[in-house]
Amino acid sequence: MSMPAISKHLKVLERCGLISRGRAAQWRPCRLKAKPMKEAMDWLEHYRRFWEESFDRLDDYLQTLQEKEKTHERKKK
């Protein structure tokens, strides 16, 4: 990754409030901001749980359909 690309990514993170940038001579140290990261993780966790539960329900439904299909096939024989 090129230096301009890295700089661009860091600027985006800074505008989002996820990092802070400072100055120390020629260096531009960056620090992660924990609170916005925690808020983002909490938001993501909510949706992770939502999708896991949705997939679990879908899996249960598909298993029910497969069982019905097997029962139907046995009755045909």
Task: Count the DSSP helices.
Answer: 2
Overall 3D form: rod-shaped
> Largest sheet, described in full?
2 strands, antiparallel
Radius of gyration, in angstroms, nearest whole number = 25 Å
Helix content: over 70%
Topology of this structure?
Elements: H1 3-15, E1 19-21, E2 30-32, H2 34-76
Antiparallel strand pairs: 1-2
Fold and architecture overview:
The mean pLDDT is 91. Strands 1-2 form a two-stranded antiparallel ribbon. It contains two helices and two strands, in the order αββα. Helices cover 73% and strands 8% of the residues.
Give a quick summary of the entry.
Helices cover 73% and strands 8% of the residues. A hairpin with an 8-residue loop joins strand 1 and strand 2. It is rod-shaped.
Keywords:
77 residues, mainly alpha, single chain, 2 strands, two-stranded antiparallel ribbon
